[in-house]
Amino acid sequence: MQAQTVLHGVVLDSATNTPMSKVSVNNLTSKYGVVTDFRGRFSIEVKDDQYLKISYVGYNWKSIHINEVKNFDFLTVKLSFKRNILKDVVIERQLTPYQKDSVRRAELYKDVLEHKQEKSIQAPVSSLYQMFSKKHKDLRKFQQQAKDIELQKFIDTKYVPETVAKITGLKGDALAFYMNEHPMDYQFARTASELEIRWWIRTTWEQYKKENSGKF
């Protein structure tokens, strides 16, 4: 490899082989970093004898020495899920507004959300009816929608417009459009610290500006 060049690659979940988006790929020497796109792909400038750090919250990070990369045309990196064993801790504190709303929603729709389809060999007709009837299809659809809303409301407590506005300088419709185009993953929102969330927003914003350099 001569001087500086661009390394292209993809990051996959080692257990499922599915692409991982929003993974951090950092050149530890140049201090430059990028994040993977929705296909898990990335491109980053590197030189001989430099190191890359590929990391994602909740996963074991990897260090890659550029001199040891065999297939330089396209690098495939697989990250494994980090399994932490934590001791039981009892913490007494007041509920957040999100938690209070979540409890109210759970109580309000308890019967619907906890409803499960009957699976009985003795009553196959009833089981088939519940599987294909419009009433039960609508019920299952509502349960999934409620689950999706719950996850999004949690993400909204972490990925807030005020923080994004301070980092990006965006306002109004431009801010809303940017956040909709760059959603935060639930697993990341659940496990990341406030500092990591700010770092993710800043890294995503820098990548966005690079991809849309003509607009800035």
Verbal overview:
By secondary structure, the chain is α+β, with helices and mostly antiparallel strands. The chain folds into 3 domains: 5-79, Carboxypeptidase-like, regulatory domain (Immunoglobulin-like), CATH 2.60.40.1120; 97-156, no CATH class; 159-215, no CATH class. It is built from 8 helices and 7 strands. The protein has helices at 97-108, 110-113, 124-132, 134-158, 161-168, 172-181, 186-191, 194-211, and strands spanning 5-13, 24-27, 33-35, 41-46, 51-55, 62-65, 75-79. The chain has a 4-stranded antiparallel sheet. The chain has a 3-stranded mixed sheet with strand order 4-1-7, with no helix packed on it. Strand 2 (24-27) and strand 3 (33-35) form a beta hairpin. Helix 3 crosses helix 4 and helix 5 (161-168) packs across helix 8. It is globular, with a radius of gyration of 22 Å. The model is unreliable at 118-125 (pLDDT under 50).
What is the general shape?
globular
Class derived from helix and strand content: alpha+beta
Fraction of residues in H or I helices? 40-55%
The count of domains is: 3
Q: What is the CATH level 1 assignment of the largest domain?
A: Mainly Beta
How do the helices and strands line up, and which of them pair or pack?
Blueprint: E1 5-13, E2 24-27, E3 33-35, E4 41-46, E5 51-55, E6 62-65, E7 75-79, H1 97-108, H2 110-113, H3 124-132, H4 134-158, H5 161-168, H6 172-181, H7 186-191, H8 194-211
Parallel strand pairs: 1-7
Antiparallel strand pairs: 1-4, 2-3, 2-5, 5-6
